[in-house]
Amino acid sequence: MSESRRKEKKASSPREYLDSLLVTVILALFGTTFILQAFKIPSSSMEDTLLIGDHLLVNKFAFAGEPGDAKGLLPYRPLRRRDIIVFKYPEPPHQHFVKRVIGLPGDRLKIVRRQVFINGQPIEEPYKTHRDPLVHPDFRDNFPPENSYMVHELPADWAAQLDQFRVRDELVLPPNRYFVMGDNRDRSSDSRYWGFVDRKNIVGRPLFIYWSFSSRANRHQRNGLSQQVAAWWETAVHFFSWTRWDRILHIVR
Question: What is the dotted CATH code of the domain comprising 36-251?
Answer without folding.
Answer: 2.10.109.10
